[in-house]
Description:
With 184 residues, the protein is mainly beta. The protein has 1 helix and 10 strands. Strands 1, 2, 3, 4, 8, 9 and 10 form a 7-stranded mixed β-sheet that branches. Strands 5-6-7 form a 3-stranded antiparallel β-sheet, with no helix packed on it.
Amino acid sequence: MLIVQSVKLTWDKMERGAKFANARKQFPFAYVLPQTDTYDNVMLHNQYFYQHNTKFINTSHTRKKIYCYSSIEKLHLHNVTICQNQYEYEICYHNYRRGHNKDYHNIQSQYYRKNCINEVAFILKQYQYGRIIWNERSIDWDGIWNYNIYIYNFYVADKMPQNNIFVSCAPDFVYKQMAMLYKH
């Protein structure tokens, strides 16, 4: 069983200063899983936040928080792919930033001859916990710039773990791709 927690923090240019960046340093990268009796081979828990001044507003209450999938192939994560080999999960990060591309010479790959990041972040085995963190800048339909931090927490278990699995211990693996999103 693979448990995935997706956490996204969004802010705009009004929260770009040092005071607001210091507040983001205090932003938690993991949360307690909600109580649920429904689970499958893959469980996804979503959390969305918006930074307003130095406060973080949880915007998840208007959306479904828990999704269950019978197989890893049905799970679609932003910039992350997962391959299951027996009881291991290979977690890969891909993004259109310059960097290492493990499939650069693979003619069969969608990343063939592309100058982008496509690499193995880590391989998780039973009872291991991994985290991927990256950031992006995007422009909205109205021309407003948004800044985002994405966090994916992964845990492999044979049954549903305790709800506090992501907050009770440190990850075994941490993969980061933090870009400079704006210049001073």
